[in-house]
Amino acid sequence: TVGSNMAPVTTTTLFTALAFTGAAAYAPVNTVGGAFKSRQVSKSSTRVYENFGFEFAEDMVENTPDVILGEANYKQWVSTVNDNSFLNRQYNVVGRVRELGLLEKTAELGVLSKLEKLGLDLATVEELLPQAEKLGLLSVVGNNQQLLINGAAPLVIEGAPILLPVVAGALGVGPAAFYLGAAGFFGLDYFLIANGVEVPFVGLPAGVVAGLLLVPLGVVSGGVGLFFSGLKK
Predict the structure, then answer these.
(1) Which of 46, 118, 164, 202 is the most exposed place for a label (fewest CB within 10 A)?
(2) Distance CA 196, CA 206 (A)
(3) What is the distance between the alpha carbons of residues 97 and 160, in angstroms, rounded to a whole number?
(4) Side-chain-facing half-sphere of 182: CA atoms under 13 Å
């Protein structure tokens, strides 16, 4: 009958069409005359907030409200939202130095006199300033005042009561003390790595974790030793 003959034809046609469509999905892109033919794929729009100097990116001036456009405007706007924000907050360097009595402790430990014996006095500092400017160190300090005041200064000043006696003792010995300190930092990190020591309750290698602190301390200590060794008085 007609109905019985149409069913297999329809089923066969349907499977053939599905097979052709699936094969076409995995077929490579055809080329005609060196030009590629590709199907257009719809993409979801992505907003770009900064153009990083690329012409194809959106202009942040068009996408950013004027009230927060630019560092100065952004800082002013943040101050209206939070008076004690990290962006505008300043660590009270002078106040904390006075409260901790660091100047008195520095004088008692004779840090300045020991620095002069090693060859670092005001005249030497004045001679080193032009070299620091050539290396761009002063520019780095000037461009990162907020980070230094709120980031580095608290670490140095709050830890100064403990660090000052250690530093004063090292200055009294000379460059050899700083070399010994560098060797100690590197040696401790090597010991942790060689023995496979792990951080308790975490399981991370202690040598890697502690190395994030020990290696920079070793480099700084050795660098300070070389610096004092290079001073000539």
Answers:
(1) 46
(2) 8
(3) 9
(4) 15
